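User: We ran a pulldown and think these components assemble together. Before we commit to crystallization trials, I'd like a predicted model of the whole complex to look at. Sequences follow.
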Amino acid sequence: MNLAEGVQIVSFGILAAAMIGAALGVVLVDSIVYSAFLLGGVFISISGLYVLLNADFVAAAQVLIYVGAINVLILFAIMLVNKGEAFAPIRGRWFRRWGTALVGVGLFALLTTMVLATPWSLAPNSAEAIEYSVVEIGKHFFSDFLLPFELASVLLLMAMVGAIIIARRDVIPEALPPEETQQTAYTLQERPRELVSMVSQSQPTPE
Amino acid sequence: MNSGIDLQGSFIESLQDLGIPAGAAKVLWMPLPMFLVIIGATMGVLVAIWLERKISAAAQQRIGPEYAGPLGVLQPVADGIKLVFKEDVVPTKSDRWLFTLGPILVVIPAFFSYLIIPFGQNLVITDIALGIFIWIVVSSIAPIGLLMSGYASNNKYSLLGGLRAAAQSISYEIPLALAVLAVVLMSNSASTIDIVEQQAGYGILSWNVWRQPVGFLIFWVAALAEAERLPFDLPEAEEELIAGYMTEYSGMKFALFFLGSYVNLVLSALLFAVLYLGGWEFFIPLSRLSDWLGVSETSSWLQIVTASLGITMTLLKAYFLVFLAILLRWTTPRLRIDQLLDLGWKFLLPVSLVNLLLTAGLKLAFPVAFGG
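Assistant: Here's a predicted model for the assembly, 579 residues in total across the polymer chains.
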């Protein structure tokens, strides 16, 4: 084993551990803001794995799209909407939890059988590194992957039109009666801080 | 790629002569250019801060820093030392971990992008095929750090500043990437070395400024917005938001934000020089000059002269742009947030799309002039 292989194995271990740890954190951490930040960590670890697989363009696109755009938008939405309200526990919570667990385990089993059933080519140096992966990806997009590529762009266009219609309220007539649409005061979330003078009054200092 | 002075090869060879195996010699070489670039980037920031102080003073008919060193050149160093020795205050009820992590996430991408800045044919840390794309990718991480510090400070001005910074950088990233894409289209490669080589040949006449007159304006506006310089410094607008996301920061963490913003400014100027002003190229093509003078291209002193001239030209072009940015900062008023977003989405985005389309069309029509 030479130096490069050692570096690859060590970085694969670090990336895999970071990814699994961060992904568990996204699900298990209570604070939604922490979850969103950890999600960024998951995406960056995945892009590191792509780099290890010689897929440089995919790795860069992963960071650009998922970290730079999607994760920032998720954080943006959380910070604008987050009111810090306490959620009351709803009835039938155990059913939802077990249902989610069942779906999660089922997905995991499906993916495991897929990984085990696929005949992977495990020979070392099986695929030669492509020097300009962008060129190869472009050729595939305009030949054998043309239909999925164009369908995905149409899907994104539909999503964009839908978002614009939802955002522009003058397009949809207001359904609520006028007395219910009262003005709410918008405040940014800020945890209350005690004033310094009040703190010093409650703890009299010897003079 | 002509065989120039191979610093890496000679360093590894001399270490191998001392009895160190080849792999270990390569490992010993690897940190050297990285440290050199980090130190170089920091020095570049110090020069930019000194320029900012002197030019702002000249714009306001003051003298500016004068006592620290000749013409006050040591003033940025004094600023830095003062910030190092300041108390590191973490406000109560703030989020201690995110508060510390935020500035780090802002600074690291800025330094990381120096990987791809070429100062000469072989004077670059790594010449990867993705090249300029790496800069766009890496700089898109910084808004997460800004949002993080804005949220963790537990201050409404900080949160507003962080949100504004994220909105601004998302909306200006797209015109920036499209302007860069037009240049990449012309040079058939995203590698910074290839982009500069494509502009070589006719000296100043073959630079991309003449072929991308709209593209370079879009790039400059978007780069100023990405670096949060004054016509677009809304995230830290003093009159509205105290200091935006940096309001609660002090000492070294504030210094990291400060360093990050100036590293970004110098980086944008360097990339502008690489993309549109011919990088390390001189005003007249050097190879023809050496032909006229009858000097062989492989003589070592000529290569040393070319390399040092390349570094000087890159820095000269970049600092000319830094000068322009500073002049803009001290002479223009600030935009409003809605004007900023309007400019980004309703003007720059369509114009940059048209620019890309025109470049592609011209490339098909005149492959000689537009890199067929």
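Chain A touches chain B through 32 residues (CB under 8 Å). That may be worth checking against your pulldown data before setting up trials.

User: Thanks, that helps.
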